[in-house]
Amino acid sequence: MASPKNRVSKMRKRQRVASLEKPILAQVSTCPACGAAVRSHRACPKCGTYKGRKVAAAAE
Questions:
Q1: Considering the domain boundaries, does residue 5 fall inside one?
Q2: 43: how many CB neighbours lie within 10 A of its CB?
């Protein structure tokens, strides 16, 4: 099992964690069919549409 050779500073650790959160926030847009928040390149969780057509069952 790998062991750390040097201590990871608070700043380096926080920068790593912060970089994991940013892309998800940037990829959120609105669904053209229902107006719900939806991530890019995924079907809408509310109405089940993707690129103008129905591809998944809608959530109840």
A1: no
A2: 19
pTM for this predicted structure: 0.53
Q: Is residue 6 part of a domain?
A: no
Phi and psi angles of residue 16, each rounded to the nearest 5 degrees, phi first: -65, -45
Total structural domains within the chain: 1
pLDDT in tens, 18-47: 887 766 667 888 999 999 999 888 999 899
Do 48 and 55 touch, CB atoms closer than 8 A?
Answer: yes
Residue 17: inside a domain: no
| SS3 assignment, position 18 | helix
Which of 47, 50, 49 is closest to 58 using CA atoms? Answer: 47
